[in-house]
Each structure stands twice: as C-alpha cells, then as structure tokens.
Specification:
The chain has twelve helices and twelve strands. The chain is an alpha+beta fold and 498 residues long. The protein is elongated, with a radius of gyration of 56 Å.
Length: 498
C-alpha cells in the first residue's frame, strides 16, 4: 500500500511538473506570438508608409510632368507669339498686317479657329478683318452673330476685359451660343484697343476636347490682341503722318510755284527798273553836261563879265550840277552792277595802301571837323581780293558817312581780322548812332534816317546802297551794329588773298 501511494505521489508530481512545463512553453510561445504580432504591425505600418510615399512620388511625378507640359506649351506659345509680333510690326499697312497672322502660329498657341472684328463708327457695324479655320459659308453666321450681339462685344471693348470659356459660370446659354456659332469647344475673346481709329476684338477657339484652356492661354491671346492693337495704332499714325506730309508737300510745292512766279515777276520788275534808271540816267547826263558847260563858260567870263549876283547864282548852278551828276553816276553804277554789266577785277589789294589813299582824299574834311582816323589792320588780314577802284569807293562812302555824322573831336576806326577764307573789316565811329528800325533799311536806295543831323547833312541815300552792291558783287556781305548816342560799326567781308 505504501508502495502504491508513493507511485501515485510520484506520478502526480510528474504530472504537475509536465503541466508546469507545458504552461511555461505556452507562455513562451504566447510571448513569441505577441512579439511577432508587434513586428507584423510595424512591418504593416512601414508598408503603408511606403505605399503613401509611392503614391506621393507618383502624384508629384504626374504634377511635374503636367507642369513641364504647361511650361513647354507656354514656351511654344511665347515663341509663336514673338514670331507673329515681329511679323505684324514690320509692316505699316493695315491690310498686310492681318495677312501676317498665320494659322501655324495659332496652332502652336493651341487654337485652330481665329477671327478678328473691328467696329466701324460710321456705319455702326463690325467688320471682319481676319478669318482662319472657317469655310466660306460659315463667315455669314459670324457676321450675323457679331451684329446681333454687338452690345456684348462693345461692352467687352469699352470695359477692356477678356471673355473666355473659363469666365462663364452661370451664363451657360450665352456660352453655348458662342461655342455653337463659332464651332469650338473652348475659346478666348480679347479686345483690340488702338488709341485712335477702329477698335475691335480677337476671337481664338479650339474644337479639341482634350485641350483645356488655362489662364496662361487666355493671357497669351490677350498679349497678341494688345500687340495687334499697337501695330494698328502705328499703322494709322504712319498713315496720318504720311497724309499730312503729302498735304504739306503739296502746299509747299504750290507755295514754291507761287513764290517762283512772284520771284520771276520781281526779277522782271527789277530789270525794268534797272533799265529805266539806266535810260533816265543816260538821258539826264546830256542836259546836265550842257548846263554845267554853259555855267562854266559864263563863270569864266568868256561871254563877258557878269554881275556879282549872277556870278554867285552861276556858282550854285555849277555846284548843284556836280551833285546831280554824282547822283546820276551812282545810279548808273548801281544799275550796271545789278545787271552784271560791271565786271569786277579782283586782285590782291593791300588794305593799308588803299586806306592811305582814302585818308589823303578825305584828309581835309577830317581836319576841318577835328576827327581822328585810326587804322588797325591785322597782319594776317592785310590783303584782300578786290577791284582796286571799287574797294576805294567802299571806304570813301563808309568813312565819308561816318565823317558826316560824327561830332568834332570824335574818332573813326578801321580794323580787320581773318575769318576762315574771308577778311572782316569793321569801320567804327563815335557818332550819333542809327535807330534800330532803320538798321535793315539803311542799305536801301534813297533811304535816309530821319534825325536832326540828317536834315542838315546833304545826301542822296545812294552811297550805302552802292557799297552793298559792290561788296555782294565781290562775294561778301555787309551789316551794321549801332546804338543811339553810342556810334555805329559797319562791318563787311571780302575774300582773303591767298
């Protein structure tokens, strides 16, 4: 019995030990399973994250491809826009301008149908200037739609805003009408706004269902419309300028013709005047010679002694005959120079030698009036090309005038200076001066300045006119600078001797 109980105890203990072993094994397996579940969960999460990253990479790649496509499309559009802009800007003819917008350019922009209407204020209608992608029979529908919906398009023009298939939200009816009439799926309408002249709109559309118009496409069409408006502005400004120039040239031509005719008439009158003066002067010389001759015979007493009263009157006749003869000779010289019958013989002349001769000739008058003649000739402006006799007459007349209008104790100064191939000679005095209004007229024939001194000084008003003709016959010119009470300076130019 004891043996059986021991066996039972041993078996029970073994069973307990076996159960404990199984429990321990089970616990260990449970821990292992738990650990494996945790690893599986981590692996699942990693796989989910990798899946999300893969999806993100795919989406990013798709977006990048889409962006690249958009960039390529914009670049293509910009290149096309640049070509068409350059093409339309190289002409100033409005009709040629629209012909230079070709279908290839618009295809590159993504549009195969295009038209442009301009509003005519005179007949209050839209006029079609550009039409591409439409058959001949479709154009009539476009005209009718533009006229029927002109308030829509005029509002678009006046509002300076675009209209596109992107713009429509609730106005599905109008959008459908445009797409149906113009035969497109999507479109852009942009205003063409030159500053002057006809304004209008540019329509661009596509039938391609796969082509989705973007804001970038709308912007490209807007830029094209703006450039078209600028080109139209340039063409119209050029046309206006050209028409104005043609009108101006016509007026100038008419005016030139009238002036030429008037100049010919002036030449004829001047020639007749010269011929008349010459003829009258010649006719006057004969009786003057007779008067002076008879007066001289009577003064000489060849016909007997004359009373003192008669003698004094005969002297006045002789003196006035000399003055009249001098005036006639001046008139003859002027008329001869004007008609070209007096040939100048320009040879090198020494100004100092000429002025010494003139000084000797006028010396008595200078001494009587207490005037000083100062000659200051520059060494590099010493010789001129001139006719000796005529050069002397120039100085005699100018210095003689200065002598008459310079008060006693005054000075008359002659200077010269070189100016390129000319010699400028200045004759200055300390006389009464010339009024401003008389400066230009002083070289006219028979003109005399109105002042108290001139009323006392005798003269014909021909001296300076003769001087002017002589100087101009030598290829020079004469002018005067003067101020009342501060004297005058007569300046003239003559060719310099080499």
């Amino acid at each position: 019995m004891m043996g059986n109980e021991n066996l039972i105890n041993i078996l029970g203990l073994s069973g307990i030990i076996a159960i404990l072993s199984l429990v321990i094994v089970l616990v260990l397996k449970m821990e292992k399973i738990k650990h494996m579940r945790n690893e599986n969960e981590l692996l699942r999460r990693s796989l989910d994250e990798m899946d999300e990253q893969a999806k993100l990479i795919v989406r990013t790649d798709m977006e990048l491809n889409k962006t690249q496509e958009e960039l390529d499309k914009k670049m293509t559009g910009l290149y096309a826009l640049q070509r068409v802009s350059r093409s339309i800007s190289t002409t100033l003819e409005e009709s040629q301008m629209f012909k230079r917008i070709d279908s290839k350019c618009l295809d590159e922009l993504g549009f195969e149908k295009t038209c442009c209407f301009l509003w005519n204020n005179s007949n209050e209608k839209f006029e079609l200037r550009l039409c591409m992608g439409y058959a001949e029979e479709e154009i009539g529908k476009l005209y009718s739609f533009a006229q029927d919906n002109r308030q829509l398009f005029l509002g678009l023009i006046n509002g300076d805003s675009n209209l596109s298939s992107l713009s429509f939200k609730e106005e599905a009816g109008l959008k459908n009408a445009i797409t149906h009439t113009f035969g497109v799926h999507s479109f852009v309408i942009a205003p063409v706004l030159p500053k002057e002249g006809q304004k209008g709109f540019l329509f661009a559309g596509t039938q391609n269902l796969d082509f989705a118009i973007t804001e970038g496409d709308e912007e490209l069409i807007s830029i094209l419309a703006n450039q078209l408006g600028q080109a139209l502005e340039n063409a119209r400004l050029f046309e206006k300028t050209w028409l104005a120039q043609q009108g101006l040239e016509k007026k100038v031509e008419e005016r030139t013709r009238a002036l030429s005719q008037a100049l010919e008439e002036v030449k004829i009158i001047s020639r007749r005047k010269t011929d008349f003066v010459s003829a009258v002067s010649h006719e006057l010389r004969t009786p003057l010679t007779s008067i002076k001759g008879y007066a001289s015979i009577l003064l000489a007493g060849n016909l007997g002694k004359v009373p003192q009263e008669v003698f004094s009157r005969l002297e006045k006749i002789n003196k006035h005959s000399d003055e009249l003869t001098h005036m006639v000779n001046d008139l003859l010289d002027i008329s001869r120079i004007e008609s070209g019958r007096v040939a100048m013989k320009p040879v090198p002349q020494d100004l100092i030698i000429i002025l010494e001769k003139v000084g000797d000739l006028l010396g008595v008058q200078l001494k009587e009036r207490g005037l000083e003649l100062i000659v200051n000739i520059s060494p590099d402006a010493l010789t001129v090309l001139a006719d000796s006799e005529q050069l002397s007459r120039i100085f005699i007349n100018i210095i003689g005038n200065a002598l008459k209008f310079t008060p006693p104790g005054g000075k008359i100064t002659v200077r010269s200076q070189k100016r390129d191939h000319l010699v400028e000679i200045d004759v200055s005095d300390t006389g009464c001066g010339i009024p401003l209004e008389s400066k230009e007229r002083i070289f006219e024939e028979f003109y005399r300045v109105e002042n108290p001194i001139n009323e006392q000084v005798k003269g014909t008003g021909l001296g300076l006119a003769l001087v002017k003709h002589i100087i101009e016959a030598h290829g020079g010119k004469i002018w005067v600078e003067s101020k009342i009470g501060a004297g005058s300076t007569f300046s003239f130019t003559l060719p310099a001797a080499a």
